[in-house]
Amino acid sequence: MSIEEIKKTLDAKMDQSIASLKNNLTKIRTGRANPALLDTVHVDYYGSMVPLSQVANLSLIDARTISVQPWEKNMAPKIEKAIRDSDLGLNPSSMGELIRVPMPAMTEERRRELTKVVRGEGEGAKVAVRNLRRDANEAVKKLVKEKLASEDDQKRCEADVQKTTDKHIAEIDRLVASKEQDIMAV
Predict the structure, then answer these.
(1) What are phi and psi for residue 157, nearest 5 degrees?
(2) Whose CA is closest to 26, among 178, 171, 170?
(3) Is 47:78 a contact under the CB 8 Å cutoff?
(4) What end-to-end distance do the CA atoms of the chain give, in Å?
(5) pLDDT in tens, 40-89
(6) Where are the strands (E) in 29-86, listed by range?
(7) Distance from CA of residue 139 to its chain's centroid?
């Protein structure tokens, strides 16, 4: 593996860490309703547990209410029970075939708990990025040891790896700050 390949791989893997963080942050609820909150809910569909999005249409009615439209009428009670039993603290209500899931107003204490969760997710992403930096630097040291790259190449590459790491850590900080702002907004 060459130094350029190491850098490309590093950048791609760090981008994956950021994408994973973004995905995890969408599942943390803010004051606004978001259908992605229900991604973790699984429903019993003829004996197998499937994600809610595979048995119903999810959409927003307004800023604080998610509507769940089951594709089969007999699924409504099962979907309602699955949402109620999830650890999201949501209380759905049936209106014929449509299930409305109102977002309860968050207390100040709950908002603070969620910001801690967001910071934890951000810290996990930073650790992943730093581990990738370490792996890249070790790969370059191995190339130098095998005499496939010079020590000057190693120094330049380590500087580039650090720049890439700093860029991704700044992006993580920006995402975490943005999510915290969303959560704390009343």
Answers:
(1) -65, -45
(2) 178
(3) no
(4) 51
(5) 889 988 888 999 889 999 999 888 889 999 999 888 899 999 988 887 77
(6) 42-45, 48-51, 56-62, 65-70
(7) 29
DSSP conformational letter for 2: -
How far apart CA 119 and CA 25 sit, in angstroms, is 10
Q: Read off the tokens for 170.
A: 């700044």
Beta bridge partners of 67: 59, 100
- Going through the chain in order, the beta strands assigned E by DSSP cover 42-45, 48-51, 56-62, 65-70, 93-95, 98-102
The pTM score is: 0.72
* Ordered domains of the chain (ranges, CATH): 3-27+107-184 (1.10.132.20), 35-102 (3.30.1360.40)
Measuring CA to CA, how many Å separate 69 from each of 73, 79, 81, 150?
9, 10, 14, 62
Q: CA-CA distance, 123 to 119, in Å (whole number)?
A: 6
